[in-house]
């Protein structure tokens, strides 16, 4: 069964029960079950009007029901658990959950409004439960995947912790809580799959169709799904004890449902893109961040906001900060000719006769006369170039990666870098120009671009999962072709790091957005790699209309003024945008080959938030 959301379901209150599922008769609170014993079904009918707070099955088929007013009934649960349940109820404790680890025997946990009683739990699980109570948070749910061992989920009033669960299940827990909801229930069928409930929303994978349908029935009637339990033999129980709460609109869900006229998941499928991550900045803080799908098609690892993707040409925008940082700290001024700082002679076509210089500022604005790969045909000409160009193909798993100097000399898989047109005369988007900036940075600092950016930009901004290294030691997404197949070697390598080699995640990009917004609008300098004056230069129009230094600009002079850059590497697409005056922005990273998806997600974000 595919992942589905209840909001996509029509109200189903009038549907007949599927299979052996039976609705409660004349109950204050509805419940549904299937595949349970006649006694369990009868007791649910008796106790549902009092509001079921917990229903749980033991691995051997026992079961227990507890209501919100302290009534309970159990059959076949461990004696010690039954005795403790009676004592807690007599003492007036409100029971939040009972759970039984899949190992069976005398292993169980009861959480209440005032603490926990447990026997035979994994030590880390019990420690986590106790730590929440010590912090003043009641534990509302504990769940155990059927594989057993040290695998569990603990849900507190305002937090959750999971260990050893399916990665997509964790992804969905994270996703739901980003929208201002609290996780309330997690449940695992013995045959695999999971359900994650967060107040008025839920996700499910691999649960019986009849169970999922009845979850929709409850939600369609305005009820909150409070209890989800799966019997070891395949049966299930659903119950509620009240209507779903009135909560503020969930903007995460609004975005997910406005992507290209469909849902985000549907568009991912249409574009054959296995994984996407998104983060949004509001009030110059990361308001939410989510992951969707997988880091690699067919793999177990889900895409999370912390996962690193190739940012492709966003590399240029981030490199621009490093260039301005160098100028600010005693390096060449933006107006300087780059050639004396290369330790290498920049070739020049015979038809370039002007004495105009390829300045650093012109390189940042793609107007330095260094035309990108693909636009250099015909060779020797200074105009009438073929379309397309500006990027680099990268190097696959079987290719030898050239040095930066070899790239510049045309000894890799791209033409040599040269002055092709008169500097300042024309705009030609040029990754080759950023290779020259990379060479300048490395010649001036005596180290690699990766080391320089880590020290001077990433560390000061807290960008802990960003690197220009060829193969950084992060959790990395794999690239995919237009048909959704993993590209050879999973990721190409880009020695042209400044132009295309950045690895990062959406959280780091949004940290950058937040800082740029604040630095741009501040009355003076704030902590970070650039002064306010340098940030103003970065985000002000330079030699190219509509462009700052390494960033594209829009809406100058309006409250909707923004800066942005997108990216396209083999198997990856990316986009980020910031709005300084609105204190807003977003980042989208995808491991597919069609830019349409990231553009549609960006459009959905803008529509939901009303940004231009």
Automatic annotation (TrEMBL):
<feature type="domain" description="Beta-lactamase-related">
    <location>
        <begin position="266"/>
        <end position="596"/>
    </location>
</feature>
<dbReference type="InterPro" id="IPR012338">
    <property type="entry name" value="Beta-lactam/transpept-like"/>
</dbReference>
<dbReference type="InterPro" id="IPR006311">
    <property type="entry name" value="TAT_signal"/>
</dbReference>
<dbReference type="InterPro" id="IPR050491">
    <property type="entry name" value="AmpC-like"/>
</dbReference>
<keyword id="KW-0378">Hydrolase</keyword>
<dbReference type="GO" id="GO:0016787">
    <property type="term" value="F:hydrolase activity"/>
</dbReference>
<dbReference type="Pfam" id="PF00144">
    <property type="entry name" value="Beta-lactamase"/>
</dbReference>
<keyword id="KW-0732">Signal</keyword>
<dbReference type="InterPro" id="IPR011047">
    <property type="entry name" value="Quinoprotein_ADH-like_sf"/>
</dbReference>
<dbReference type="InterPro" id="IPR001466">
    <property type="entry name" value="Beta-lactam-related"/>
</dbReference>
<feature type="signal peptide">
    <location>
        <begin position="1"/>
        <end position="26"/>
    </location>
</feature>
<protein>
    <submittedName>
        <fullName>Serine hydrolase domain-containing protein</fullName>
        <ecNumber>3.1.1.103</ecNumber>
    </submittedName>
</protein>
């Amino acid at each position: 069964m595919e992942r589905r959301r209840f909001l996509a379901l029509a109200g189903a209150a009038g549907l007949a029960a599927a299979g052996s599922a039976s609705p409660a008769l004349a109950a204050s609170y509805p419940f549904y079950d299937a595949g349970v014993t006649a006694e369990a079904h009868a007791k649910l009918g008796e106790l549902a009007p009092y509001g079921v707070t917990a229903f749980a099955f033991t691995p051997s088929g026992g079961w227990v029901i507890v209501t919100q007013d302290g009534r309970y009934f159990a059959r076949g649960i461990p004696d010690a658990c039954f005795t403790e349940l009676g004592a807690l109820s007599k003492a007036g404790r409100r029971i939040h959950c009972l759970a039984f680890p899949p190992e069976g025997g005398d292993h169980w946990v009861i959480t209440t409004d005032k603490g926990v009683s447990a026997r035979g739990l994994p030590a880390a699980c019990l420690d986590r439960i106790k730590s929440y109570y010590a912090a003043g948070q009641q534990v509302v749910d504990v769940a155990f995947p059927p594989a057993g061992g040290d695998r569990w989920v603990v849900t507190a009033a305002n937090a959750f912790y999971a260990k050893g669960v399916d990665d997509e299940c964790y992804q969905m827990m994270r996703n739901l809580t980003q929208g201002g909801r609290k996780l309330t229930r997690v449940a695992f069928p013995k045959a695999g799959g999971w359900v994650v409930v967060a107040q008025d929303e839920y996700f499910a994978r691999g649960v019986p169709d009849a169970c999922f349908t009845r979850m929709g029935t409850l939600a369609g009637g305005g009820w909150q799904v409070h209890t989800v339990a799966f019997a070891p033999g395949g049966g299930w129980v659903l119950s509620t004890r009240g209507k779903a709460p009135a909560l503020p609109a969930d903007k995460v869900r609004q975005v997910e449902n406005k992507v290209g006229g469909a849902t985000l998941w549907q568009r991912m499928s249409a574009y054959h893109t296995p994984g996407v991550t998104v983060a949004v900045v509001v009030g110059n803080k990361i308001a939410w961040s989510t992951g969707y799908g997988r880091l690699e098609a067919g793999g177990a690892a889900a895409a999370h906001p912390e996962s690193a993707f190739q940012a492709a040409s966003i590399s240029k925008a981030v490199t621009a900060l490093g260039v301005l940082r160098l100028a600010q700290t005693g390096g060449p001024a933006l107006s300087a000719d780059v050639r004396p700082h290369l330790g290498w002679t920049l070739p020049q076509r015979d038809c370039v006769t002007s004495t105009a210089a390829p300045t650093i500022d012109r390189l940042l604005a793609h107007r330095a006369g260094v035309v990108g790969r693909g636009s250099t045909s015909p060779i020797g000409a200074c105009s009438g170039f073929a379309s397309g160009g500006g990027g680099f193909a990268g190097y696959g798993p079987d290719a030898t990666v050239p040095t930066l100097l070899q790239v510049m000399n045309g000894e890799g898989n791209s033409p040599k870098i040269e002055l092709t047109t008169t500097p300042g005369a024309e705009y030609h988007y040029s990754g080759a120009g950023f290779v020259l900036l990379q060479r300048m940075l490395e010649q001036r600092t005596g180290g690699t671009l990766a080391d320089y950016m880590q020290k001077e930009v990433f560390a000061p901004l807290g960008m802990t999962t960003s690197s220009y290294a060829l193969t950084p030691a992060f959790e990395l997404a794999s690239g995919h072709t237009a048909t959704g197949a993993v590209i050879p070697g999973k990721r190409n390598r880009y020695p042209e790091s400044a132009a295309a080699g950045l690895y990062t995640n959406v959280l780091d990009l949004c940290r950058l957005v937040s800082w740029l917004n604040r630095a741009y609008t501040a009355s003076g300098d704030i902590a970070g790699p650039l002064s306010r004056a340098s940030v103003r230069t970065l985000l002000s129009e330079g030699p190219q209309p509509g462009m700052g230094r390494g960033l594209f600009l829009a809406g100058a002079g309006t409250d909707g003024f923004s800066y942005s850059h997108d990216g396209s590497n083999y198997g990856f697409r990316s986009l980020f945008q910031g709005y300084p005056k609105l204190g807003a922005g977003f980042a989208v990273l995808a491991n597919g080959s069609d830019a349409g998806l990231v553009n549609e997600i960006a459009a959905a974000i803008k529509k939901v938030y009303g940004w231009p």
